[in-house]
Design brief:
Layout lengths: L3 E4 L5 H11 L3 H9 L5 H8 L15 H14 L2 E5 L4 H16 L3 E5 L12 H9 L2 E7 L6 H10 L2 E5 L13 E3 L15 H12 L6 H4 L2 H10 L6 H15 L4 H9 L9 H18 L3 H8 L3 H34 L10 E5 L7 H12 L3 E7 L2 E7 L6 H6 L7 E4 L3 E7 L3 H13 L10 E4 L1 E2 L7 H8 L13 E15 L5 E7 L6 E5 L13 E13 L2 E13 L3
Parallel strand pairs: 1-12, 2-3, 2-4, 4-5, 5-6, 7-8, 13-14, 16-18
Antiparallel strand pairs: 8-9, 9-11, 10-11, 14-15, 14-17, 15-16, 17-18
């Protein structure tokens, strides 16, 4: 992928130097933080070293007091409580957290995780009716429910007290439930609006266990970190705090299943990162919901039996292997469809469908197509006359808003600006394609179709120091809205013999110097076919500055994002 480089504005050098002195930080790191909105030494310190005790009062969530009162009554009177989750990592970790919280409080609690294929997303009437038939007095949703208006009405008719915890965008009408807790709910005064589903569940756990954080709740932070990183919510504010401390807790987790999964993935507990949870742990947990039944993933996170945990971790690992194979098959068929689109170069969107696709993997494949073609993409898996779709967006295109203009062709839809799900009948696929393409054309210019590479600042080789490297590590955990800092080095001199490396020679490795400096290694993953661009011997590089460890030796490294021959 080639990019349009967008370089951040350069603040006054004297201001950055003074802030660096006050904050005791490397000047380059100080400049990065300043451009990202941390413009005092105190703000920089609060970001780099978040205080776990500085979280917002859970009772600022509208509906929290009513929820706590009802749950405490159920606990005191021995009433049955059921947790209704979701089949993705956020929903499964939120369900596991609530089960562990209520179990340790002596509650009679079980959980229901819907089947992706049979039940679809969210709370449905059948689940409410089953809860009533099973004698459930209190039904608590996690990571879903904020749009379940009809289901809430049914629960009230049946005498089941419904408590909704969610973080998705509410519709115009809220469910009539005992409590609806969602930081995005209109009128809710909770200061931080970007909590994940498991984050909202954790706030409920905190409210049930005053006076706040204690050892019994610290051990739940690994579940919060896992669900939060997997759900691609902004890693700022409370989310950053939860993940930073939760990753540390994950390294010493007391949950046998999670520990077994970490080991199964071949990760080192003492050096876990948010990136590893996203790309190594989350896919294994998601594999259950995508390929079979997410209840296995929930059992993994709630079992206290080491043997069962190891067995479940092995099963999820195998399901993830199967999932990857299905991914590749689906991707190849999607690419074949794209190759048959006559006016592909004029398209502003992609809508693809098939009766042969597994509904559990279309979201993953849609994301991969967005990476390749940089177009809003919808993949739909049909089962008979009804199709279930997953949509993924690009920067600057509000997917939820666009789908709202296509409601006449959809049975259901939901999500947010980056990702969404939908259902539609086969008879509506062509008019939906046209309507979605029109929505994209009305919103996307030619410039929007060239992906933007955000560059934090321009640097010289002399600024790429060990002090900067250590400071950048403090910015972790990295993720949504806290991406790894990206730097621009102009007129870099190519040293040594650039070579293609890797099993398929897909990667590019060379050394870089500038104005007589010592060299730093550069690696460009999936850039092996761009070796000719180094022929002039002088290039402009956009890169992430990081530390590479090989055979126990750690060295600084530039991980390339893009490059161009220097123009001067």
């Amino acid at each position: 992928m080639r990019y349009r480089w967008e370089i951040g504005e350069t603040p006054p050098e004297t201001l950055i130097q003074e802030l660096a002195r006050q904050a005791h930080l490397d000047p380059v790191l100080t400049g990065v933080l300043f451009r990202r909105g941390f413009q005092t030494a105190a703000q920089m310190d609060a970001f780099l070293a978040p205080d776990l005790t500085a979280g917002h009062d859970p009772f600022l969530l509208d509906g929290m007091q009513a929820a706590v009162d009802r749950i405490r009554t159920a606990l005191a009177e021995g009433e049955r409580i059921r947790i209704h989750g979701d089949y993705d990592v956020d929903g499964v970790t939120a369900a596991a957290l609530m089960i562990r919280t209520l179990n340790r409080m002596g509650g009679i609690v079980d959980a229901h995780i819907p089947n992706r294929t049979q039940d679809g997303y969210g709370l449905n009437a059948q689940a409410v009716e089953q809860a009533h038939a099973d004698g459930v007095a209190v039904l608590i949703t996690v990571d879903c429910g904020v749009t379940a208006v009809e289901e809430a009405s049914l629960a009230r008719q049946l005498g089941v007290d419904l408590i909704i915890t969610d973080h998705h965008k509410p519709a115009d009408e809220l469910p009539d439930a005992t409590a609806v807790m969602n930081p995005r709910k209109p009128g809710c005064s909770y200061p931080f609006k970007d909590l994940s589903g498991v984050g909202v569940a954790y706030k409920l756990a905190l409210a049930l266990n005053p006076p706040g954080l204690g050892p019994a709740l610290m051990d739940l932070l690994d579940l919060v970190a896992l669900g939060t990183t997997a759900d691609v919510v902004p890693l700022l504010g409370e989310n950053r705090m939860f993940v930073k401390y939760g990753i540390c807790q994950m390294g010493k987790t007391k949950w046998p299943g999670l520990g077994a999964l970490i080991d199964r993935a071949g990760l080192k507990r003492e050096s876990l990162t948010a990136t590893q949870t996203v790309f190594q742990l989350a896919p294994r947990i998601n594999a259950a919901g995508r390929m079979t039944d997410a209840r296995e993933a929930l059992q993994l996170l709630t079992t206290d039996d080491a043997f069962e945990g190891a067995d479940l971790a092995a099963r999820l690992d195998q399901q993830n292997v199967q999932r990857r194979a299905v991914d590749e098959k689906t991707l190849k068929r999607a690419l074949r469809q794209i190759g048959e689109i006559e006016d592909m170069e004029k398209r502003r969107s992609l809508v693809l469908c098939s009766s042969d696709w597994h509904p559990g993997v279309i979201g993953i494949v849609a994301s991969r197509l967005v990476e390749r073609f940089h177009l809003p993409t919808v993949l739909i898996a049909f089962d008979g006359e009804i199709g279930k779709g997953s949509a993924r967006s690009i920067e600057g295109f509000d997917l939820y808003e666009a789908l709202s203009e296509c409601t006449g062709y959809l049975e259901t839809f939901g999500g947010h600006q980056h990702a969404a799900g939908l259902t539609l009948s086969k008879s509506q696929i062509d008019p939906f394609k046209d309507a979605f393409e029109e929505a994209a054309r009305n919103r996307l210019s030619d410039e929007d179709l060239t992906p933007t590479l955000h560059v934090d600042c321009e640097v010289s080789m002399s600024q790429l120091t060990a002090e900067l490297l250590q400071g950048l590590k403090r910015m972790a955990p990295f993720g949504c809205d806290n991406r790894r800092p990206t730097f621009l080095l102009r007129n870099a001199l190519v040293r040594g013999n650039p070579r293609r490396v890797g099993a398929d020679r897909a990667h590019l490795r060379f050394a870089v110097a500038q104005n007589g400096s010592s060299t730093i290694d550069a690696i460009g993953f999936r850039m092996g076919d761009r070796a000719d661009e180094l022929a002039s011997g002088q290039v402009d590089l956009v890169f992430v500055f990081e530390e590479n460890e090989f055979r126990g030796i750690r060295r600084p490294q530039m991980r390339l994002r893009d490059m161009r021959p220097s123009s001067d």
